[in-house]
Write a structure and sequence with these properties.
2 strands, mainly alpha
């Protein structure tokens, strides 16, 4: 009589637990780096928006013959033509702003003062030239 010795194929519990542990370790390393990269990209986007607002303020003041003490409208209507194509230029907003609107994201200030971010004022700062 012949014995039936068929091998069962599959993974043991220990092998599966080792794979899950390795995946967990990789996730523990990757997630903080992802969060840091996201924060850095949001900060860079906001600073670029501040540069754009400052440049549009300078152009507005030059074309309207304004002084450095004059302030454009805080709603951005004075700057809107200089922020994009034509009169319907897009008003930027801080990527961290939950309301996603120009007036809640930025303080325009007068022409001689750089604009400021209202959401994360500690790190979203326009560097001085």
């Amino acid at each position: 009589m012949k014995k039936n010795t068929a091998k069962k194929h599959g993974f043991t519990l220990v092998e599966i637990m080792i794979v899950v542990a390795i995946i967990g370790l990789l996730a523990a390393i990757a997630i903080p780096n992802f969060v840091k990269a996201r924060t850095t990209s949001q900060q860079n986007a906001c600073i670029n928006n501040l540069r754009l607002i400052d440049a549009s303020k300078q152009q507005w003041a030059l074309e309207q013959k304004k002084q450095t003490t004059d302030t454009p409208a805080s709603t951005g209507t004075d700057l809107q033509p200089y922020l994009g194509r034509g009169v319907n230029g897009e008003l930027p907003s801080c990527p961290v702003d939950p309301q996603n609107s120009f007036p809640t994201s930025y303080t325009v200030n007068n022409v001689g003062t750089p604009p400021a971010c209202n959401i994360v004022s500690s790190t979203h700062i326009l560097p001085l030239n």
